[in-house]
Here is the input.
Amino acid sequence: MDTIASLFSFITTPVSWVIVQFHSVYGAIFGPDTGWAWGLSIVSLVILIRICLVPLFVKQIKATRAMQTLQPEMKKIQERYKNDKQRQSEEMMKLYKESGTNPLSSCLPILAQSPFFFALYHVLNGIATGKTIGVINDPLLASARKAHIFGAPLAAKFMDSSDKVAALGATLTDVRVVTAVMIVLMSFSQFYTQRQLMTKNVDTTVKTPFMQQQKMLMYVFPVMFAVFGINFPVGVLVYWLTTNVWTMGQQMYVIHNNPTPGSKAQAAYLERLGKHVTTHGRTRRRSEKAIVKAIVAKGRERNEFERKFINGLSKAGLAAQADGTVVRSEGQTVVQTEDGGTTAAAATARRQQPKRQSKAQRQSGGAKQAGDSAPATTSLEKSEEPQDAKPAGAKPAAAKQPQKPASGGRSKAQSGQRKGGPQRPKSPSKK
Here is the structure.
């Protein structure tokens, strides 16, 4: 144990110094020997570390999005070289290099946080064994050993014996109840965080083995936390529970404001954004403009939710611009539709084209086009005449004669018709 502690001495001393500085602040409020002073010092240490890891978290999100984008290509490579594992690995590495992605980038926050976790573990283990470590001297060591959180000492573990717990001034029941509750909360927060990622922030249009792996980890990680948690001191459980809650809240914020394309979270976000934009007629925040800009740039490659969002803006008379802004299009439809059009005028002209007319409609309308000086109501006046009104030169016998079926085709039936103006009645001699 001393050898391992010496390996982490480069990080143990800074961690112990940060804890002591926070303890001096909280000790002045709650008392130097209270569990609140030492417990809040550990919580503050977690918050400070996680704030420093925010850039890595942003990089993790970008790496995860890039990996999700590459899933279809990865699946093709796996199917193409399923019998040649070496060639499959080479093609995978080539794909990562061409796209500029790194599969290990999604693990950066955990890897960067590990040294602080081990350093805190050794600091609390030194408190449990009565050894000074880092900048924690004998008076601070005695104060930390007196600190209890809900009756459990900071250095106590679930598997400690009753004699060891009694030496720290507590009972075995209190220690096991407090540690069991914290282990359950720690495992549940890990499970909920992973489940939220799988059910809301995963592209549902792509089914890959990566999703199955994530689903398996959703159940494996909580079990691992439960197994290892029984050997963690109470102070380490406070640290790990705090970082899990921070991760859960941080992920909820990302899913709510910057969801993965094609996920259920994106559908909910675009629905909220569509209502907001149609109500106010513009995008207000920079993040909203960035998302609208990305959707416009996709063109025909938009997914179902993005097309629905653009069509919703179109129905509201709004146009999404290439810079992410939204403007009103008076009497025109939004440019960005499924066909990838970029001009509202073209969409309007396309919508205003007349319908294709039949041959009979074109022939009946030819009279109107031939005589531009004739009033437009002539055809209406003729259609409103009573059926017994007959032309002046027509005889009753000719009017009552039934028409013969057009056995020779419409071209022969209409060969005697005049191209323009009213038709001339047939002569009675052809009866």
The radius of gyration is 39 Å. The longest helix spans residues 172-200. Strands lie at 148-149, 152-153, 318-320, 326-328. Residues 78 and 84 are 9 Å apart (CA to CA).
